[in-house]
Design a protein that fits this description.
158 residues, mainly alpha, two-stranded antiparallel ribbon, globular
Length: 158
């Protein structure tokens, strides 16, 4: 697959798998962002990360501050997803198998959604999705970095 630039020079699509996964991740990011916006509009809280005072919210896992909770869901997603995309893009540019990358990104997406929907938003913010999402995401990153290192092993003389 190629496209043309400038004077008709053919340029191959370099990151089709990484590009394909931008849609589901972006849709979910917008969904998480809109949850924060909803809490701000609902409670007329235009700035800050909490509705209640720190004293009211400290250690209250049964009834967490909704703005803080939705904000953390959004930020946790933003803390992990960009690095996963960087790793995936580097692997893809170095000849990674498309099937492996697609399965890996599907698993990572499920881990991040599970971390929020079955973890942070689960019972007492401690649902099973939380540790599965955390450790699964770390496993994804370690595995993708190792796979990328394997793809360029010739650079190291192996």
């Amino acid at each position: 697959m190629t496209s043309t630039v400038g004077l008709g020079v053919p340029v191959p699509k370099m990151l089709p798998i990484t590009g394909a996964w931008t849609l589901p991740f972006t849709v979910y990011l917008i969904f998480l962002s809109n949850r924060v916006v909803y809490q701000r509009i609902k409670h007329k809280q235009w700035i800050g990360d909490q509705l209640k005072s720190d004293k009211d919210n400290s250690g209250n896992f049964e009834n967490p501050d909704p703005l803080f909770l939705d904000g953390r869901c959004h930020l946790n997603f933003l803390e992990n997803v960009p690095y996963a995309f960087i790793l995936t893009a580097i692997a893809e540019l170095n000849g990674a198998d498309s099937t492996i990358l697609n399965y890996a990104m599907a698993a990572f997406f499920a881990l991040r959604v599970g971390h929020v929907e079955l973890g942070l938003r689960g019972k007492d913010t401690r649902g099973a999705g939380r540790p599965i999402g955390i450790f699964g995401s770390q496993g994804f990153m370690a595995a993708m970095a190792a796979y990328t290192a394997y793809l360029v092993k010739g650079h190291w003389g192996y």
